[in-house]
Amino acid sequence: MGLFDTLLGRTKPAKPDLDALFALPSAAITLEAGMQLKPTGVGSVCVKPAEGAGFAGLREQIDQLLAADNDKYTEVTDGFGFSWITREGDPGDLADLVTDLHSVNASLADAGFGPALLCTLVVFSGDGGPPVGLVYLYKRGTWYPFVPTGKDRRDNSRELQVRAVLGKDLNVETDLSRWFPVWGAPGL
Amino acid sequence: MATRSRFRSDPGLVARMTLTMFLIGALYVAFIAVLLSQGVSTVVVVIIAGGLLFAQYFFSDKIALYGMGGRIVTPEEAPELHGIVDRLCALADMPKPRVAIADVDMPNAFATGRNPRNAVVCATTGIMRRLDTEELEGVLSHELSHVAHRDVAVMTLASFLGVVAGLITRFAYYSGLFGGFDDRDDDRNGAAPLIVIMLVSILVYVLSFILTRALSRYRELSADRSGALLTGRPSALASALQKVTGEIARIPTRDLRSAEAFNAFFFTPALSNGFSISSLFSTHPPLEKRLEQLARISVQLGQPVA
């Protein structure tokens, strides 16, 4: 934000960076090689629904877009009033999942609701430990791991391990204070 | 990729704010010019006022927290409040401020701190009890907008002149009382400029007070606007405002009087540390004006997808 925007009290809403999502499939290969974690096929987009007909109309369009495919698709609202649009597809085809998630993001951004996007979450598991969520922060263009182990508890050592493995493949968030927990996210 | 945005700025509000800031700046210049023409050594006054505001600026978070009896809470102690702030910060791409709770029944919330890295957002237990999650989120996004706009820094700077003028008024008054206005011949030359300085200072103080209040109201409207756009729920903030002000209107007179006395105790009320959500003092625009703006944003958000 520039000096004048600060002085005049005009915050510009942060713009989302959508394309970094496509770095995920190659990072998944590294994750499998390094930690034996495989995609579960579950991915979701978290968005803050705006009030009014504009957003409601858009939601119908997204419903139609996703219903055209055969994969499972659900939508839940969490305790904070955020919507999770969740996609459950073929665990073997991560690229397809990423494309679906990207199309949801793109239709939101094209309709002017880009600033309402909170994060995208893709779930990995398979090494016997608790499932690992990779969270993509649109506004930062960065990723971070999130491993919940119970009510309001997270496995920090496992998260740091994921960071160490993925450091080269993904743009991992360097500021640890921005690794916001998303308790109760679908698939975790 | 072409991205459309539903989030527009309000040129009228920006223009009014710019004009107010310009007038405050012009007042600065005029006041210094008068002081210099009267041959006053302003160094002492400026140093005292500067020291006051320096402390105000650097300790604004601690002063305001202490004043409200606020306590910094961890995510374990207040998971819901932290959860809301986490998500709002991720949406707005800003560093997370510290989160505090004040154990006061009066519904209120404030944000303070000289920059986003040193900010504190505080809510009272009263507001958390009365508002639902959506409304609380609206209030917190309003406070986070104050942090993003650096309102503590801007208002401290803007109120600096008022503090200087107030100090000079007092100095002139006391030096007039203790020797300025007697009949001795050798003092006659000194008395006239002293009265001029005192009158000018009073005038400057009043003008600066009115202007900083106006600026404060514009910044409240800005924070309402940015906050509502951040959550996409202007109506939730509107209903929170109605609840909060409705509650305040019902507080018994004894409480209101003691609140006023507390305010008058301050050297200048423009020195207040926090930016609170309640419209108890005239630093805030009238409720109807804020609701009207939120209704306009709601209509803009509701326009169908092209």
Please compute the radius of gyration of chain B using only Cα atoms: 22 Å
User: Which bin fits the share of residues in helices of chain B?
Assistant: 55-70%
Calculate the terminal CA-CA distance of chain A, rounded to whole Å. Answer: 35 Å
The structure class of chain A reads: alpha+beta
- Average pLDDT of chain A, to the nearest integer? 85
- Cα distance spanning the termini of chain B: 17 Å
Largest sheet of chain A: 6 strands, antiparallel
Largest interface: A-B, 50 and 57 residues
What does this structure look like?
The complex is a heterodimer of chains A (188) and B (306). Chain A is α+β, with helices and mostly antiparallel strands. Chain A contains 5 helices and 8 strands, in the order H-H-E-H-E-E-H-E-E-E-E-E-H. Chain B has one domain. In chain B, helix 2 (43-58) runs antiparallel to helix 7 (151-180) and helix 4 crosses helix 6. Chain B starts with 10 loop residues before the first helix and ends with a helix. Chains A and B meet through helix 3 and helix 4 of A and helix 1, helix 4, helix 6, helix 8 and helix 9 of B.
Summarize the structure.
By secondary structure, chain A is α+β, with helices and mostly antiparallel strands. Chain A has five helices and eight strands, in the order ααβαββαβββββα. Chain A is 34% helix and 25% strand.
Question: Which descriptors apply to this entry?
Answer:
heterodimer, A: 188 residues, B: alpha+beta, five-stranded mixed sheet, 68% helix, globular
Lay out the secondary structure.
The complex is a heterodimer of chains A (188) and B (306).
Chain A: H1 3-7, H2 24-35, E1 38-47, H3 53-67, E2 72-77, E3 83-88, H4 94-113, E4 117-125, E5 132-137, E6 142-146, E7 148-150, E8 153-154, H5 156-166
Helix pairs in contact in A: 3-4
Chain B: H1 11-37, H2 43-58, H3 60-68, E1 70-72, H4 79-92, E2 98-102, E3 109-112, E4 120-124, H5 125-130, H6 133-148, H7 151-180, H8 188-231, H9 234-249, H10 253-265, E5 275-276, H11 287-302
Parallel strand pairs in B: 2-4
Antiparallel strand pairs in B: 1-2, 3-4, 3-5
Helix pairs in contact in B: 1-8, 2-7, 4-6, 6-8, 6-9, 7-8, 8-9, 8-11, 9-11
